[in-house]
Every structure is written in structure tokens, then in C-alpha cells.
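G., the chain you wanted modeled:
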Amino acid sequence: MLKRTIEDIGERLLDVSRDFDRALMLGGGGRGVDLLKSVVPDAYAKAAHWVESDLSPRRAASAQAPALALDEEALPFADESFDLIVSPLALHWTNDLPGALIQINRALTPDGFFAAAMIGGASLTELRQSLMAAESEMSQGVSARVSPFADAQDLSGLLQRAGFALPVSDVDRFTVRYDTMFGLMQDLRGMGETSVLSGRSRTPARRALFVKAAEIHAQRFADPDGRVRATFEIIHAGGWAPHPGQPRPKRPGSATVRLADALGVKEVSAGEKAGG
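Predicted structure as C-alpha cells:
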């Protein structure tokens, strides 16, 4: 998933019609810059100098590019340190996402670019439903067992709130198939994407719960060949650090040309019935 995400970020960087001097890969797992160089070399070449970071000191130490371990909620950079910041699959772990985005904005030079990818709210819907159904059937209630994720609209709003100019977002949604639900859970552990909710139940779940959830998962979300589906949603979002030369939206009511004239159609007022 990291490779797919970094490839998508790289393709978006190719759409930016300028190059950068100082770039930060925020949370690349120790191999983000190397992956970008491998899968989209032209995007890697858009920045003259790359720095990589990760929350894990061990992963940061394994990076090929200059790297440091840091907490995304407490960036150790001076204002206007980077011209480009990209963050693949890291910011959905932050407790204070608005605060992290504000710090990222401050770390960018004026007219610097930020691109991020986060796991979205529709991810793992099959696993969530199966666990909830199994637990409600076997006990008196259900516990949160999958971390919450933002959606595309949330992220665009948060970028704007953090002071980014021209914020945009879009969604990459795809399905991965497994022999059983346990294969999916093994992959999630390997990705480091298991739940870390502080409010989750501290009582270890019984194996019978997961066996039942796997049965429900197979009944509800299996294809004709018997393999089960897992939906993943990656939200891509980007924005620019403010700069006086950036385009700005016109004030409401300042238009000098009617939309109907621009489209070459007849204007129909709200009080008229179309076609009448």
C-alpha cells in the first residue's frame, strides 16, 4: 500500500509546474524517498534535496536519504524550512491533526506545496461490520476495534482551517482479496495499522470472537471463488502555503458576465418552469 500511495503522490507532483529546493518526506517508514526515486524518478528529481522522517527511530535510521525521528505533532523545524512536504500514510495516526497541519504550514516557505495521503473512512468496512456483528451476537455490546479515519471532505476543511491556500482532495478506493479474514488481519499487523485506540477494551478478545467474525465475513463479503473482500480508501489532499501571488477567488457579486451568456444558453429564472 505504501508503494501505491507514494506512486500516486509522485504522479501528483508531476502535475506541479515548478521544482523545489528543500523537500521533506514526513513519515515514509524509512524507505519513502527511496521508493519515490524508484517508482516515479521524475517526481523525485523535482526536489534538489530530500529529508526523510519517521516516528520510529529504528525506521528513520534505516532510510537511505538524510533522516530523523520525530513526532508529527511536534515538528522540530523552524518556520519556512521546506519548499515541499509530502506525507504518505502517517498523519492518520496523529491525535491532533489540525495542530499538525498548522505546523506543516508554518514549516513551508511561502508558496510551498504540501501533499498528503491518509487512510480514509470507508476503509475496512467489511472487517468493521463483521467484528461488530460477531461481538453483538456473543456479548452484551460491541467495542471499537478499528481506528477511526477522516473522509475527503473533512481533510479539505482541515487544510483550509490550517491556513493552506487552494486546498484540494480526492479519493483512491480499491479492493484487496484474501483467503480468509485472518489473512487481512495478518497484513494489518505487518503494516503497523492495528488499532491503538486509548478507549478500547483492555480485556483480551477471545479467539471464538474472531472465528465467528471470520465466518460472518465469509458469509457476507465473499466472491464466488470463496475469497473475501477488504475495501481500502486512500484520501489524497494538497494545498499551498499562502503567497500574495497566488490566485484568489472573486468576491460574491463581482462577476461582470452572466453564466448564461458564457454558456450560450437562455437564462431561466427560478420562478419559471423549464421548457414552458
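The beta strands are 20-26, 47-54, 67-69, 82-88, 108-119, 165-178, 228-240.

Shout if anything looks off.
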